Structure formats: structure tokens, C-alpha cells
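Why do we care about 3D structure at all? Because function follows from shape, and shape follows, mostly, from sequence. That is the central idea of this module. The next example makes it concrete: a single protein chain, its amino acid sequence, and then its structure expressed as C-alpha cells.
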Amino acid sequence: SDILSLHCPLTDRTRNLINKEALSKMKPTAILVNVARGPVVNDEDLYEALEKGVIAGAGLDVLGVEPMEKTNPLGKIKDSRKLLITPHMAWASVEARGRCMKEVYNNIEAFLDGKERNRLDR
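And the structure:
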């Protein structure tokens, strides 16, 4: 693939799914996009892959630990052609924010009308 975009939950099976071994199987022109959960990608292995040209670049909306720790090696990469990091905002399209506001409105309206809506029983 030219672009690998991650959209998976964080589970025991997906933690460090993208590591040195997985990155080594990618094309040197490939771009990795992580909009899933940070720990799906091993930050140290990604740093090494980007520095050594194993893959061409990465776009990250999430990191292994947020906020980014000073010790995270990805912070050393200053070339935006190699690495872009956004502040965990991939979910926040205009449409998604509009749907969130509509749901809040509907929940308040239901509450005021004495109706149950979106109830979670645990």
C-alpha cells in the first residue's frame, strides 16, 4: 500500500501492531496515518523507520502517551514532509461536531420531557 491508515481500537492484539517488523514490510515510499489509538504504533520504532528512510512519512493524530513526553523521539523530527502530528482532532470534522451538538440537544430535550434516551446500564 502507498498509504496505511489505522482506524482500530486499542486491544491486546492491536497494541504495538505497527512496530519495527511491520514497518519493515512497508514500501520506502509509504505513508502511515494513525487516527486510531496512540499505542497501536510503537513511537520509538516509527522514529527509527522515519530516520532511516524505511517509510517516507507519517501523519499522527494520536501518540503512545499524550500529551507528548519530552523523551518521545518523534519530537526530534522537525521535517514536516516526514512527520505531521495533530492534536487528537481527527474526529472533529464540522459534521461530527454538529452531530455531537444535536445529540446533546436531543438528550436535554428528552430529560426535560421525562423521557429516557441513550441510557447506559452497567
